[in-house]
Every structure is written in structure tokens, then in C-alpha cells.
Amino acid sequence: MPYPKGHKLKVRNHIITSAAKAFRTHGVRNISLPHIMKGAGLTHGGFYSHFENKDQLVKETCHFAISDTMEMLQKVADKNKNEDQSAIEAVIDFYLGSLHRDQTEVGCILPALSGEISQLSEEIRQAYTRELQRFITFITELAEIDTSAGYALVSSMVGTVALARAVSDSKFSDDLLQAGRTQAKQTVNAGSK
């Protein structure tokens, strides 16, 4: 009996979703294909009917994860925007908050991979670069700031999350997030068009 229409695409999306969760939490090199396939509820043998290799999966997962993060941040901006807080301030507070820091499996993939991406294939580095540029454009437009300020803002946000996740002292981590929020908002104010 043949599979229903769209079955292969649905399975492929399950694999990408599993990979995004795994890569966000553990990075690329520390995760095996069997682990990803198990997370998708599948056996390892089926991987190659969907992807040529792990690099292709990483590239597609980066695109999926950044799209997912931008969608989540747009919802934060839309939901939390009020007269006292701009959309970008709501996004900064969320992105540099303890919930985003602690829930790595659904958080932004940029800080999760930033430390290892330079050691991966050129193909993956190019994909990461495109997704970082796409994220910078999203944040820059949301903040209504010039491109240079957008680079600084995203660099600060991603770096702050990476450091806050890396340290073993929870108070120090919270202090890093607080300082990052303050600095990010100053960057927005200084870079307003």
C-alpha cells in the first residue's frame, strides 16, 4: 500500500525538527544521525532517502531554525508591544532572558553553533552565514536601525546568550543577560534611523 500524498515531506520535516532540537542543545559535531533519527521516531536507515549527507541536513536545519526563531520573535514583538515598550525592546527582553537561555532546544541556533561553525565544512559555513545575514536583516528592520547598528545589536545579543549559557555560575549568567539587555537597548537608541 503506498504512503499518502505528502508523507515523504512530512517525514523529512520531522527529521529537520529533530535535528534542530538536537543541534540547538548539543551542537552539530556531538550529535549522530542515529540520535536525530531516533528523535524523529525513525530508524537510521531511512536518513539517506531524505538527505544526501549530514551537511545537507545541517544547512536545511539552520534555515528552518532561523525561520522558527524569527517567527517566535515576531510573535513576541506583536504580543508584548505596548505604549511603554517598543517591539524591539520586547524582543531584546525575551532573547536575552532566562527562559531563552535555559530552553536551548527551542532557542536561537546562532549562539548554539557559533563556537563550532568555523570548524565545519565551507558549505555549512556559507549556509550559517546566509542565515545570520537573514536574522540581522530581520532584527535591523524590526528595530528600525541602520545596518551597522544591526550588526552590533545581533552580535551583542548572540554573544550574550552564548556566554550566559556557557558559565557555571547562575548569578553571573543572569548578570550577563541583564548587562546584555541594557547594552542592546542602548545600541538600538544610538542606531535609530
UniProtKB/TrEMBL annotation:
Identify the Pfam families for this entry.
TetR_N
Q: Which SUPFAM superfamilies match?
A: Homeodomain-like, Tetracyclin repressor-like, C-terminal domain
- Which keywords accompany this UniProt record? DNA-binding, Transcription, Transcription regulation
InterPro entries recorded for this chain? DNA-bd_HTH_TetR-type_CS, Homeodomain-like_sf, HTH_TetR, Tet_transcr_reg_TetR-rel_C_sf
**What are the residue boundaries of the HTH tetR-type domain, all occurrences included?**
9-69
DNA-binding region of this protein: 32-51
- What is the protein name stated in its UniProt record? TetR/AcrR family transcriptional regulator
State the species of origin: Paenibacillus cucumis
Q: What is the lineage of its organism?
A: Bacteria, Bacillati, Bacillota, Bacilli, Bacillales
